[in-house]
Design a protein that fits this description.
By secondary structure, the chain is of the alpha+beta class. It is built from ten helices and twelve strands. Helix 2 crosses helix 3.
Amino acid sequence: MKLPKVTNKQQEIIKLLYRYRFLNRIQIQKLMNHKDYKTINLWLKDLTEKQFLNRIYSTHFLEKSKPAIYYLGINSIRFLKQQTDVTEDDQGYPTYPITELRKRYRERQRSENLRSHSILIAECCINLKSKTSQRLSYGLATQADYIDPNHGYHFLSGAEGITPDLCIIKHEYSANQKNNPTADDEDVPGTITNYLLQIFDSTLPQYRIRNTLKQYVNYLNNDGWESGDNDPAPVVLLVCPRVTDLIYAKRRTRKLLLDEYYDFEDIPKDLHIRFTTTEQLKQEGINSPIWEEYRRRYDV
């Protein structure tokens, strides 16, 4: 099927929405590092008219000030299906896994919670990218990224009982490293710290939270991390919807660790599970000292 023509920049918008699922105009502009919001609005309007995008926008008086939320339309899915990677033997393989693309057909039916969840993940990525400097950068892998069998962190998709929303690869460089690698390069030198971020939905029952905590403890204890010999095991970052959930999650994690090690002094120094609330994450940003591990606070 012949699709309407779109520019390279518009294709970039389509790929961003595949990666994050739901984004507002402000986030799209920041992720593209584009200065002119009028141009972004023109691209979005054109893509919507050509059925590459759908949007959610309220005309209610109290909601009118909120930016529209965009997600992939039918022509974007068709466009992404046509994208292929050519291997050394000149064989073409789909760039985007068909199982993941099929999920995009039902985006219109997704809950408000999932949309808010996606918006918050994107906000975390924007916050981390803004901290990039000559001495610091962040690689980012969303669920849509690491589900791809060709991705370096694809092993996360097979981890039992855990589905992190975001894998963060923090690169810190010494003063004598002259090059400044891109934020998404996973093979750069320097000190590496990995983080697995998961946001608990407000409707998630307590037994599901309890089970997820157990699975993360098992994952860290059983050396499930497979990214490489020089790539350390991750710090787990768990976002709880309410303060009461945070208190419960911390206490439950303590119990799980004590059942395993009997004494806090025996817990490995590199085993880290940290907590915050959704409200703190929204207000302060992911790169803030909002993360609690037992009685201490950390930043990312």
